[in-house]
Amino acid sequence: xxxxxxxxxxxxxxxxxxxxxxxxxxxxxxxxxxxxRALRYADERGLPVSMAGARHSQxxxxxxxxxxxxxxxxxxxxxxxxxxxxVMRVQAGATWADVQAAVNPLGLAxxxxxxxxxFTVGGSIAVNAHGRDPRYGPVLDTVTEIRVMLASGxxxxxxxxxxxxxxxxxxxxxxxxxxxxxxxxxxxGNATLEKRxxxxxxxxxxxxxxDRIVGRDDVELHFGRLSIAPGDDFxxxxxxxxxxxxxxxxxxxxxxxxxxxxxxxxxxxDLSRESDLGKSVRWELQQRVVDPVDERxxxxxxxxxxxxxxxxxxxxxxxxxxLQEYFVPLDRFEPFIxxxxxxxxxxxxxxxxxxxxxxxxxxxxxxxxxxRNSVAVVLYLNVxxxxxxxxxxxxxxxxxxxxxxxxxxxYYLPYLGFAARGQFQRAYPDADRLLEVKNTFDxxxxxxxxxxxxxxxxxxxxx
Length: 463
Hints:
disordered N terminus
């Protein structure tokens, strides 16, 4: 297996540090042939294969014990940008920051990605991520073609017209069907946007979406936040941020600046991890400094889609910051938040941030997580890393999942695998569609990870 870097018998993990697993090989992919040789090596030895990019998926998607991990992070070229057609072709390991740097000078911008640009394109497609543009559903809406290597080593180009079942299965498949090598993505204009901030009570948020967001073409980005300050305002007080189009892409787009104020932001965020007072101070600063109510400022779409993120980086053996995300129909948002508030308070959960987004419903993929027009409720939490604390986190996470399901909603799969298998089956009743495609294109079930073994592997195979 010459041509790539292989490190034997090492432990891999995701960004939380809570999912260590020992694997046989890590292959640093730089060419298509690296992937083919690794698959041949795995086939000869009967080893499972999984993929890794930025490793921000926290649900056991990186690695299967004693298997091979394809590290795709160096397979990261932006291959082509067609400004006239507003499409680009990119290798799977490229980050959204790489994409932004390539398209910004051409007056173009990303249509759908996560709220941060540190993730890889391949990883975003694998989890079918969604973003802050309320006019779009998940990234699937903007993927026009995928170049895939199957377990046999054969490479195929798939789209909605060519092998549509395989195309739909690849998006949101968590790396269980084949290796994403390249993708063609739709782009949008790098419009000039005005940032508008308003305070809001959580009970009014669904009507705000209906009246001010849904169906409007000029609102290009939207999100909300709920208070993390302990007391009467917890998950009640809030504000919304809209980025409204007020102009075309500038003739000379401003260069994209690196993240500023990392030390200051890290200091304030650390205080909110440690105490209730820190949470109250940070919530006040968010409303007065970060997103002041009644603010009016102008930026391009690319600038607005580069919020600070590096200040959140944390290296601790004692605790970890984790994400969770729940989706509920607009008419069930208020009772879900009421249930969430009770659960988080009863279990004294260390809540660091609560973000709201609007997501149009979709059902094109087997693991579709929001079949109805929904509010996405994103929790950023800190958990202790000891066994007792993690067991407690599993209990309150399952309570939150039940609350979402009871309100005709769902939970998102990229995060810690605390859900019971029965909850997964209730939340994703069409998962067998994914397994049917897997049986066709990966009959030996070569592509595996801990997520697959926990929730998808048939019981008669030891799951």
